[in-house]
């Protein structure tokens, strides 16, 4: 990866801020045993530009300062996003990219069950998996397929037109 420019750092700060605002707009569904963060839609920005993983991961970290789970969410929530981002970046098909947060939902399941004591590991993991699948695959994929037809949008998010992606 090349060096981050001031313009790229600014984009990442904006992505992080948007993630935080979206997460905090409905905190009842962003934290605790029922997690339905519609801000997770932004995860697919990393599919189009690997640098966007920085803003998303930073946004998750900052959002988790408001979590009722405290430091656990700072660590495990950010870890979940970071790992999912690494796989999203490597994916070449948008459907595959959208699945990674669902695959790694067990990290949040562990946090919710063993560390926060909300329920069984499987129950918490399945709940997060369903949420991630609905948000990332059923909602975000169609949204980004539409947005990806707009060249101006792709330029704004820093899409590298030399990358061969399938959406």
UniProtKB/TrEMBL annotation:
UniProtKB keywords: Membrane, Transmembrane, Transmembrane helix
Keyword hit for GTP-binding: no
Membrane-spanning residues: 12-34, 41-62, 95-118, 124-147
InterPro entries per record: QueT (IPR010387)
UniProt cross-references to Pfam families, sorted A to Z: QueT
Protein name as annotated: QueT transporter
Organism annotation: Helcococcus kunzii ATCC 51366
């Amino acid at each position: 990866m090349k060096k981050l420019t001031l313009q790229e750092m600014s984009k990442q700060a904006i992505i992080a801020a948007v993630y935080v605002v979206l997460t905090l707009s409905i905190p009842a569904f962003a934290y605790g045993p029922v997690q339905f963060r519609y801000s997770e839609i932004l995860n697919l920005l990393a599919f189009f530009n690997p640098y966007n993983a920085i803003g998303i991961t930073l946004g998750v970290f900052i959002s988790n300062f408001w979590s009722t789970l405290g430091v656990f969410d700072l660590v495990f929530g950010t870890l979940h996003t970071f790992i999912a981002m690494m796989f999203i970046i490597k994916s070449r098909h948008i459907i595959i990219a959208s699945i990674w947060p669902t695959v790694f939902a067990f990290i949040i399941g562990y946090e919710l069950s063993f560390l926060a004591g909300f329920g069984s590991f499987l129950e918490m993991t399945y709940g997060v998996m369903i949420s991630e699948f609905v948000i990332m695959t059923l909602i975000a994929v169609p949204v980004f397929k539409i947005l990806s037809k707009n060249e101006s949008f792709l330029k704004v998010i820093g899409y590298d037109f030399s990358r061969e992606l399938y959406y």
